[in-house]
Amino acid sequence: HTFSILLNNRDEFLDRKSQPAAVHHFGKACHEEGDNVISGLDVEGGGTWLGINRHGRIAMLTNITEEARRRNTSRGNLVSDFLLSSTKQTMDQYVEELTKTAVTEEERATHQDYAGFNLMLISVASEDNASEPAKPGGTVRRPRMALVTNYGGGGVLSARWLDEQESALHGISNGVDHKTMHLWTKVKEGQDSLEASIKP
């Protein structure tokens, strides 16, 4: 049997109000039951840090450690937007649109002024995995994974697709993408511990 393990820890201020995981659609119009999302809810920002939908999409967000500053756009909405876009956009279309560079500084300040973040997007949905047809016996498709980041507050959004090795076992933290910077020790130790624990 094919299975996946997801470990997540929300690193947030204790006094920031949130609601526990539940089935919902972030208060937006929901035309089909399949549009619903399972996630916690950040009461202040209206988004979430981790969620899954019925189409087979998962998204999780980490905040890059940096000096606090109020921004015009909420990072938590990146997760909800991806999870709610399943019936409107493929994963490729979503990533392309999200990382499209703003034409003007005004547009960027309005739509892309996020505090530092790493956004992991995962999908086993058929519409997001056209190159890998369904397998016999109900075996789950290998997930497609993309990492979207701005490398720090106010930065330009960029994305890269994870290769097969990274997709098999991957970790992200409050630092920048380890493809450009040294992998944090806690991430390396976490990956090693997980790999050791699941070996037959």
Overview of this structure, please?
The protein has one domain. The longest helix has 14 residues, at 185-198. By secondary structure, it is an alpha+beta fold. 22% of the residues lie in helices and 20% in strands. It starts with 17 loop residues before the first strand and ends with a helix. It has helices at 76-84, 91-98, 105-111, 164-168, 185-198; strands at 18-24, 37-42, 50-53, 57-63, 117-123, 144-149, 158-161. The protein contains five helices and seven strands, in the order ββββαααβββαα. The chain has a seven-stranded antiparallel sheet with strand order 1-2-3-4-5-6-7, covered by helices on one side. The mean pLDDT is 84.
Task: List its salient traits.
200 residues; alpha+beta; 5 helices; 7 strands
Write the layout of secondary structure elements.
Elements: E1 18-24, E2 37-42, E3 50-53, E4 57-63, H1 76-84, H2 91-98, H3 105-111, E5 117-123, E6 144-149, E7 158-161, H4 164-168, H5 185-198
Antiparallel strand pairs: 1-2, 2-3, 3-4, 4-5, 5-6, 6-7
Average pLDDT reading: 84
- The structure class reads alpha+beta
The tally of helices reads: 5
Oligomerization category of the chains in this entry: single chain
Name the overall outline.
Answer: globular
- Please state the CA-atom Rg, rounded to the nearest Å: 17 Å
Low-pLDDT residue intervals, each spanning 5 or more residues? none
Q: Strand share of the residues? A: 15-25%
Termini separation comes to: 13 Å
Domains, number: 1
User: What is the strand tally?
Assistant: 7
Largest sheet: 7 strands, antiparallel
Helix content: 10-25%
Sequence of secondary-structure elements: EEEEHHHEEEHH
The order of strands across the largest sheet is 1-2-3-4-5-6-7
